Amino acid sequence: MRLAGTTAVITGGTRGMGRAIAERYLAEGARVVCAARNTHDVKEVLDAAPDRAWYHPVDVTDADSVRELMVWSVDTLGSIDVLVANAGVNRDGRVDRLPVDDWHDVVSTNLTGVYLATREVVPHMTAAGRGRIVNVSSSMATRVAIGAAAYCSTKAAVEMLTRVSAIELGPRGILVNCLAPGILDTGMGEDLIANERIWAHYSKRLALGRPGRVEEAADAAVFLASDESSYVNGHVLEVNGGLLWS
């Protein structure tokens, strides 16, 4: 029960990796607010822990919506000890063909959404004198993928935002780190694995010879939220099984 007594807010927390992190945090004793635009399939998580799990709507691209989420969480649960900024989207397209609206959609969700979540949670964590922020990036932040200009760019920016935030907020007792998963068996990774031609290309670049389980990434998120990482700040933790890229 490494997170007993803590309250965590997870954006994009109703499906995929966000839901997996919510389930692991609940298993470790935390109270969890699963925040997203839609409930998706989070009902099972809420039903399994009705006294420690909540859903709250949020649009991470809207400052007022994010502010309301943080205020509601503190008013309802007393504190926010951990923020997991996980909400993200992808829009495929080569740089000379990607529609401008798609570019703005990815930037506003993947990057501005992390910035807004950080900005709105910091006053509450500052008042408490402590806090953990876990931003979710991707192995694609540091590796080139054709047709993923918007996604790769925003994830690279999230990693730099993490480092700057860690330096600025560390003196307040707020640790900021980043989780960068590789190819997982859920979300975008699931689609990649299902495409035999593409998977044949990428599977050769995995030292462990398999995609990661979403639970393995969630375990790393527990570490970054727990006392075990009390001297880890501004770090990008890659969970990718030894991923090479060409």
Kindly describe this structure.
- This protein has 246 residues and is α/β, with parallel strands linked by helices.
- It has eight helices and seven strands; from the N terminus they run βαβαβαβαβαβαααβ.
- The protein has a single domain (7-184, 213-239), classed as Rossmann fold.
- A seven-stranded parallel beta sheet has the order 3-2-1-4-5-6-7, sandwiched between helices.
- β1, α1 (16-27) and β2 form a beta-alpha-beta unit.
- The radius of gyration is 17 Å and the shape is globular.
- The mean pLDDT is 95.
Short description:
The chain is α/β, with parallel strands linked by helices and 246 residues long. The protein has helices at residues 16-27, 43-48, 63-77, 100-128, 149-169, 188-194, 196-203, 214-225, and strands at residues 7-11, 31-36, 53-57, 82-85, 131-136, 174-181, 236-239.
Mean pLDDT comes to: 95
Q: Please indicate the count of domains.
A: 1
End-to-end Cα distance: 41 Å
Strand order of the largest sheet: 3-2-1-4-5-6-7
Quote the beta fraction.
Answer: 15-25%
The unreliable regions are none
Structural class: alpha/beta
Tally of helical segments: 8
Largest sheet: 7 strands, parallel
Compute the CA-based radius of gyration: 17 Å
In helices, the fraction of residues equals 40-55%
Which series of helices and strands comes N to C? EHEHEHEHEHEHHHE
User: What CATH architecture do you see?
Assistant: 3-Layer(aba) Sandwich
**Total strand segments:** 7
What is the general shape?
globular
CATH topology: Rossmann fold
